[in-house]
């Protein structure tokens, strides 16, 4: 009886050892397989997730966490590529915009040196080109400053109805010169939001200025409240742009007329978007039947 107990114990120990060794070998194989897949991912031979067939919860959790990290890594890599491409395109566009007026200024200075042009005419043109350079550089650095993490706005309760009305009045002459009679619909009751007054003035100014560049007719400006959300809509008919333009309308240096005529910097709507985000607002655009609409939304404050 004692001998049988010893034999059974030895059999149990042997089975336990074999099972444990088998599991350890299986874990080793699975870890080796996961390591191999991570190496392939690191060497950019694959972009697939880690796949493993296991019933072990710990190994499964390990594979899951690794896959979560790899997804985050891929997302960061994609964002990095988009940022680098945007930066390259932005630098190329800015270089073009800087070079154009600079080349013109240099040309007119040479004409002045050779007395080949009227002095007053040349100085007037040089002044205009210099002003454009100043605006471009200021807009570029303003956008970079606004987009930085350190830039914060002091948000206060402000009456958006009053701000919009005042800004529209400041464009009265511009509407007259363009031959446009805007259809304006602003709620009679005060509409309050948490925002920065100067930034809101800049947003409205940029939106209306941009609209006037491309507007042909049927310009509409609406400010209303809907389910606790304040909605500003600026819409106009425009046949010189298409749906592709609208998709990129808030991109840096994007100019919807496809020809860089020197009438803007291509940064106005990018500045608007950056300021909206700093005020926890939402800005979007839509294009239907040759009507482009810019929509700004804020939460209402009582």
TrEMBL record:
GO terms for cellular component: plasma membrane. It catalyses: ATP + protein L-histidine = ADP + protein N-phospho-L-histidine. Keywords: Kinase, Membrane, Phosphoprotein, Transferase, Transmembrane, Transmembrane helix, Two-component regulatory system. InterPro entries: BphY/WalK/GraS-like (IPR050351), HATPase_C_sf (IPR036890), HATPase_dom (IPR003594), His_kinase_dom (IPR005467), HisK_dim/P_dom (IPR003661), HisK_dim/P_sf (IPR036097), Sig_transdc_His_kin-like_C (IPR004358). It comes from the Bacteria. CDD domains: HATPase, HisKA. It is found in: Membrane. Its EC number is 2.7.13.3. GO terms for molecular function: phosphoprotein phosphatase activity; phosphorelay sensor kinase activity. GO terms for biological process: cellular response to phosphate starvation. The keyword Transmembrane applies. The keyword Transcription does not apply. The chain crosses the membrane at residues 6-26. Residues 93-283 form the Histidine kinase domain. Pfam families: HATPase_c, HisKA. This is histidine kinase. It comes from Clostridium saccharobutylicum. The gene is phoR_2.
């Amino acid at each position: 009886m004692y001998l049988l107990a010893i034999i059974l114990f030895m059999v149990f120990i042997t089975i336990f050892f074999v099972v444990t060794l088998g599991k350890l070998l299986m874990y080793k194989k699975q870890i080796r397989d996961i390591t191999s897949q991570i190496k392939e991912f690191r060497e950019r031979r694959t972009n697939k997730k880690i796949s493993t067939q296991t019933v072990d919860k710990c190994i499964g959790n390990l594979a899951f966490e690794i896959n979560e990290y790899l997804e985050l890594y891929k997302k960061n890599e994609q964002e990095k590529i988009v940022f680098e491409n945007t930066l390259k395109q932005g630098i190329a566009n800015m270089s073009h915009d800087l070079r154009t007026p600079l080349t013109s200024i240099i040309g007119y200075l040479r004409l002045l040196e050779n007395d080949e042009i009227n002095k007053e005419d040349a100085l007037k043109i040089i002044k205009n080109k210099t002003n454009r350079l100043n605006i471009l550089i200021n807009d570029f650095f303003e956008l970079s400053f606004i987009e930085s993490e350190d830039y914060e706005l002091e948000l206060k309760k402000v009456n958006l109805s009053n701000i919009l009305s005042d800004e529209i009045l400041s464009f009265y002459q511009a509407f007259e010169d363009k031959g446009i009679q805007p259809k304006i619909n602003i709620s009679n009751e005060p509409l309050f939001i948490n925002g920065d007054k100067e930034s809101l003035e800049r947003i409205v100014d940029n939106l209306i200025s941009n609209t006037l560049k491309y507007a042909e007719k049927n310009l509409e400006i609406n400010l209303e409240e809907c389910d606790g959300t304040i909605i500003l809509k600026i819409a106009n008919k425009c046949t010189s742009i298409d749906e592709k333009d609208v998709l990129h309308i808030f991109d840096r240096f994007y100019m919807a007329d496809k020809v860089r005529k020197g009438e803007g910097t291509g940064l106005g709507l990018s500045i608007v978007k950056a300021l909206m985000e700093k005020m926890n607002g939402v800005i979007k655009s839509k294009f239907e039947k040759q009507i482009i609409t810019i929509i700004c939304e804020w939460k209402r404050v009582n």
